[in-house]
Amino acid sequence: MSTSRRVFLRLAATAATAAAAGSALGCAASGGARRRLAMAIDVRKCLDVHGCRACVDACHEAHNVPAIPDRAHEVKWVWKEPFERALAVREPATLPAALRGSEVLVLCNHCDNPPCTRVCPTGATWKRDDGVVAMDEHRCIGCRYCVAACPYGSRSFNFVDPRPFVAHPTSDYPTRTKGVVEKCTFCEERLAVGRLPACVDACPAGAMVFGDLDERGSEIRKLLNERYSVRRRPELGTRPQVFYVI
Amino acid sequence: MLEKALDGGRRYWLWLAALLAVVCAAAWCYALQLRVGLGVTGLTRDVTWGLYIAQFTFFVGVAASAVVVVLPYYLHDYKAFGRVTILGEFVAISAVTMCGAFIFVDMGQPARLLNIVRYAAPGSLMFWDLVALGGYLLLNVTITRVTLEAERCQTAPPQWVRRVILLSIPWAISIHTVTAFLYSGLPGRPFWLTALLAPRFLASAFAAGPALLILLCLFVRRWWDLRVADEAIRKIALIVTYALAAHLFFAAVELFTVFYGQVPDHLEPYRYLYFGLDGHAVLTPWTWASVGLAVAALGLLLTPAARARRSLLAAACVAVFVALWIEKGLGLVVAGFIPAPLGTVPDYVPTLREVTIVAGIWAVGAAMVTVFFKITAAVRTDGP
Predict the structure, then answer these.
(1) Between vectors from CA A235 to CA A229 and to CA A239, what angle results, nearest 5°?
(2) How many CB atoms lie within 10 A of CB A100?
(3) Are strands A156-157 and A208-212 parallel, antiparallel or unpaired?
(4) Residues forming a β-bridge with A229
(5) Cα–Cα distance, A216 to B360 (Å, whole number)
(6) How far apart are CA B247 and CA B210, in angstroms?
(7) Looking at residue B280, what DSSP letter applies?
(8) Of the candidates B125, B341, B342, which has its C-beta nearest A119's C-beta?
(9) Is A45 helix (H, G, I), strand (E, B) or coil?
(10) What does DSSP say about strands A242-245 and A133-135: parallel, antiparallel, or unpaired?
(11) Which of A123, A197, A185 is nearest to A154 (CA)?
């Protein structure tokens, strides 16, 4: 385990204790100082383990995400897309050969200015103080306005009952019902107990870095300071918090 | 007054029974959708709104269009519309009811629908749409009840209701503006992201809605006497002409910007509608049918002699209604989702069950209009 990861875990644990102490007052999990949680994906490191699905499997198993064979009704939290589709590259010919057609991870961007939470008529999805765009599937009425608002296709709607399609259900995380929207939550349930998101933990290449952008010495801050990164469709003003380091 | 709806002939009851049969078929399909989920529709992960929401959008326009008969009568004292305002308001009530039904059947969790009120989110346009439509329904129910009662008693309607009617005029504009804002504020959907959407919605609504009103008046005239003057029909036809011209102008303006500007994000949904994209062209024939019908209808309506002939006027009104139904009740919503955020071109074709549910809601609207027009005719011919 790297030093910075240990630092992050200690920080998260402190935050979790603070949250536990403050829960009687309904305090937010951020405790004192504001956090800005983000993820950086090192695209080249990810490509080194070509064909790897460790993060996808870890996420989908941890969250009872159904494997629906009908693509029209698919539910997915994190998956792989060709680079040019994920980053909306209009002229793939201008890309370096290594990136052209290569597969990169896509997931909810946990936008700093999310259009999905803006449109939700019931407050079933909202941005937390620490930047996580959260989702309450029990309040969701299934209007799919958030799906229309998301410019990234990161939200899935349960067109059918998902439970029969969960091969190995885990009791650590709730299953969902038909007729509600779901998506990646940056593993809020793991963050709450000081753990890293399941996908980050599962990555054999160490291609995913997760942390607090506002924390000076954080691994993600350092990586973004040192390397060039892009985000998906920044021109839309949504300020995605998932960075692609290339 | 409602008892007058019970006094109809054989044909009247047969018609209502036929509509009831359609509603029953739709209820059967909806029961299945409720059990299985929205998976029984043609909707997909990429095209998550389809026929239901498109129909909703179209009928909000029909509801708003009552204003084109209400405004001239109450603001300009245009007497010829005296007998037709209430019919416009009745069509509006039926259309708003249909809108509510379309929203309801589109919900993944309809039992939780009241969460929109319970956890009201003023930042969401859907909340404001509910407020606007609910208020509009309430206004029109009040107005029609009071004015028809006054008509039955052959007295002038009370003064206070005039204020309610004046309020209903901007309110009608607001329902369709807010409905346009549902779409036109989404950053990732360039097809809808245009300030022209609300004006376009209003223009097409003021053509399609009054065209329907003309057709209803001409049709109902065969059996019941609604006492609608020919002059009123002629004037409404003129309004349809202007609104249709405005609609086509707006559409042309949009096409210019998109095709001359050539920004790919804006271009692609239009290319999908008009020429097909990446070999997907389900909506192309519909789009051209819509354009053809609208242009033909404008040609007819711009000819005073054609507008004066009842058969040609009816044909033009059918063309206007169908053209705008395709444009708004089909293409507008679907094309907004194409291409999908990840660049793919998904197909959407409604299922038979979906179409049956839509037909059922149409039948509810038709039944409401039938009963309302029947009552109005009875009030006007039976005397007090």
Answers:
(1) 60
(2) 14
(3) unpaired
(4) A245
(5) 61
(6) 14
(7) B
(8) B125
(9) helix
(10) unpaired
(11) A185
- Residue linked to tokens 């306005």: A145
* Token pair of A121 as six digits: 């008529």
The amino acid at A111: C
Which amino acid, A124?
Answer: A
Query: What superfamily in CATH does domain B2-228+235-382 come from?
Result: Formate dehydrogenase/DMSO reductase domain (1.20.1630.10)
Does B188 contact A236 at a Cβ distance shorter than 8 Å? yes
Residue A35 structure tokens: 């956090």
Nearest to A114 by CA among A128, A130, A129, A127: A127
Measured distance CA(B207)–CA(B176) in Å, rounded: 14
Kindly tell me the number of DSSP H helices and DSSP E strands found in chain A: 9, 10
Identify each DSSP E strand in A137-230 by its residue range.
156-157, 181-182, 208-212, 229-230
Query: Closest chain B residue to A82 measured between Cα atoms?
Result: B342
Q: Which of A14, A59, A10, A15 is nearest to A218 (CA)?
A: A10
Regarding beta strands A242-245 and A37-42, do their DSSP bridges make them parallel or antiparallel, or are they unpaired?
parallel
Contact B44 A139 (CB under 8 A): no
Q: Is B279 left (phi over 0), alpha (psi -120 to 50) or beta?
A: left
Give contacts of A144 with chain B, Cβ < 8 Å. Answer: 48-49, 106, 108
Q: What is the pLDDT of residue B115?
A: 96
How far apart are alpha carbons A77 and A222 in whole angstroms? 27
- Tell me the domain boundaries of chain A: 3-245
Amino acid at B180: A
Average pLDDT over residues B219-247: 91
Tell me the per-residue pLDDT of B99-118, one tens digit each, with 9 for 90 and over: 999 999 999 999 999 999 99
Which whole-number Å values give the CA distances from B46 to A157, A159, A165, B354, B381, in the listed order?
10, 12, 20, 17, 54
| Rounded distance between C-alpha atoms, residue B175 and residue B172, angstroms | 5
Residues A112, A238: Cα–Cα separation, whole Å: 6
Domain ranges (residues) in chain B: 2-228+235-382
Q: What is the mean pLDDT of residues B212-239?
A: 90
Read out DSSP for B106-167? Answer: H-SSGGGTTHHHHT--TT-HHHHHHHHHHHHHHHHHHHHHHHHHHHHTTSPPPHHHHHHHHH
ipTM over 0.90: yes
Cβ–Cβ under 8 Å, residues A52 and A205: yes
B122 touches chain A (CB under 8 A): no
Put simply, the chain A residues between 21 and 40 with a CB less than 8 A from any chain B CB are none
Q: Give chain B's mean pLDDT.
A: 94
What tens digit of pLDDT does each residue of A18-71 get?
444 434 333 344 445 689 999 999 999 999 998 899 999 999 999 999 999 999
* CATH code at A3-245: 3.30.70.20
Which chain A residues contact residue B342 at CB under 8 A? Answer: 81, 85-86, 106, 152-153
Test A122 with B119 for CB contact under 8 angstroms: yes
Tokens standing for A115? Answer: 């259009």
pLDDT one-digit tens code per residue, B14-63: 999 999 999 999 999 999 999 999 999 999 999 999 999 999 999 999 99
